[in-house]
Design a protein that fits this description.
Low-confidence stretches: 108-114
Distance between the termini: 38 Å
Number of helices: 11
Largest sheet: 6 strands, mixed
Order of helices and strands: EEEHEEHEHHHHHEHEHEEHH
CATH topology of the largest domain: Rossmann fold
Shape: globular
Number of strands: 10
Mean pLDDT: 89
CATH architecture of the largest domain: 3-Layer(aba) Sandwich
CATH class of the largest domain: Alpha Beta
Length: about 240
């Protein structure tokens, strides 16, 4: 059984059909890339999967349950975590407190009221920061980080909930070449515990970390398969040449 199966997804905004029967299937512990020219519907499909947009038609199944009408909060509780391109870290708080708040979202009200969770979660906070090479900045405000480091912090926050599926929308946008390389290294270890769907324009980056790719053009899936199959597809080559 697939972890995620979105089928027949249609999304209409007024007179614009952003998605026209798009489909996406994700296996457990799979890194899956969504690629396509600008305006092809990648982010809209991601939002329909995450619940940020309601599909006009179609169905979204997650872990065998129909979540088409579920709220984003319900999807998060089911094991889905989303990070959009624009960072949403709290810049005035330290890196430590940003991670702590992400972890406390799963704490009971009693633990929060009596301030027990901060002490109990300390080792986990530091472990997450260490995993993303940010432990030495734990006491710094998030605003002091570079753009790339803020992206890493937000990915770390998204993973704090221990999701089954992590959705990333253009996580390397605005990064330097070195930051992109490090981002790939930071993401690789999470494959042992969750699946990943990533929207990305950097084809070299996405090719290096993904098991499979789905290519969208004008709201429809034109090809889905292994990286090698996508690279060899005349249809994909035609789309990218046409949009170049």
């Amino acid at each position: 059984m697939a972890l995620l199966e979105a089928s027949g997804i249609v999304k209409i905004f007024g007179k614009l059909t952003a998605l026209d029967g798009a489909a996406l299937t994700i296996a457990e512990n799979e890194f899956h890339g969504l690629i396509g020219p600008n305006g092809s519907g990648k982010t809209t499909l991601m939002k329909c999967v995450a619940g940020a947009e309601a599909p006009t038609q179609g169905r979204v199944m997650f872990s065998g349950t129909d979540i088409t009408d579920a709220s984003p909060a319900e999807r998060a509780r089911a094991g889905m975590s989303l990070k959009f391109q624009i960072t949403s870290v709290l810049p005035a708080l330290t890196l430590y407190d940003n991670i702590l708040l992400a972890l406390q979202a799963k704490s009971s009200l009693a633990a929060l009221v009596f301030s027990r969770s901060r002490h109990e979660l300390h080792d986990r906070v530091m472990g997450i920061l260490e995993q993303f090479r940010l432990a030495n900045r734990a006491g710094d405000p998030a605003s002091a980080l570079s753009h790339g480091q803020q992206q890493w912090l937000e990915i770390a926050m998204a993973l704090a909930a221990e999701p089954k599926l992590l959705l990333l929308d253009e996580p390397t946008g605005g990064m330097s070449l070195e930051e992109r390389r490090v981002t790939g290294e930071l993401l690789q270890p999470i494959k042992t515990r969750c699946s990943l769907v990533i929207v990305e324009h950097d084809l070299d980056f996405i090719r290096d970390i993904c098991d499979r790719l789905t290519v969208l053009d004008q709201g429809s899936v034109i090809c889905s398969g292994s990286v090698q199959e996508i690279q060899a597809s005349p249809r994909v080559q035609e789309v990218y040449l046409r949009r170049a």
